Amino acid sequence: MRVNSGIVGFDELAGGGFPENTVNLVSGPAGSAKSLFGMQFIHNGARDHDDVGIFITLEEGRDSVVRAAQAYGMDMGLKNLHLIDFGEIRTDMDMDEEMDMGIVSFRNLRDFLKKQIDKTGAKRLVIDSISAIGLYYSNTEVLRREMFAFCRFLKEQKITAVLVTESVDAHKTRFDVEQFVADSIISLGYENVDGEYRRTITIYKMRFTKHEPYKHPFLIAGSGLEIDHEEIIY
Prior knowledge:
Largest sheet: 10 strands, mixed
Strand content: 25-35%
CATH topology: Rossmann fold
CATH class: Alpha Beta
Order of helices and strands: EHEEHEHEHHHEHHEEEEEE
Number of domains: 1
CATH superfamily: P-loop containing nucleotide triphosphate hydrolases
Number of helices: 8
Structural class: alpha/beta
Helix content: 25-40%
Distance between the termini: 32 Å
Shape: globular
CATH architecture: 3-Layer(aba) Sandwich
């Protein structure tokens, strides 16, 4: 089964959409449209496919996310779309240590999500961004182990997830472990191509399906990302 992304041109690159019940990493530097990618994915599911979706924002506040979505014609207040900000997670869980640190662990996020998925029957999930969670861990090995456990949990929940993360370059994420735990790696960029700055997207990995491995340009239009799946950037 495939889960349509709602992003013009992406499903053509991904063999028809995300394989169902997978964990998908969307990485890129600041300003590369990572959050917008996640918004389109969750909004499309709720509006066009009646998929219950959860969008968790760990960095931006609720009002900021709603405003950004509205700029591209997306309504984050749909009845089957649940927008949750970090403050709600802290209130719902017993997280004294995290409150002091201003961040959340994968373990507490997992416990919170289990309740939310059971209550809502969600089929899609976006977390923006897991870079904020990585700050909780001082040890890379512990971070990797906890991230593996979190991804296993998501798959057990039969949910298709998009995890947003920052990248240092096209091949290295913020903590350099995120790319090893996800089923797919989607890299967004904003780079100089023959003297012209262009937005780009590359699917470096996608399990359970054939996919287009080349770099393609995309634009940010009135309704969000629009990928030219026919043009290849060499």
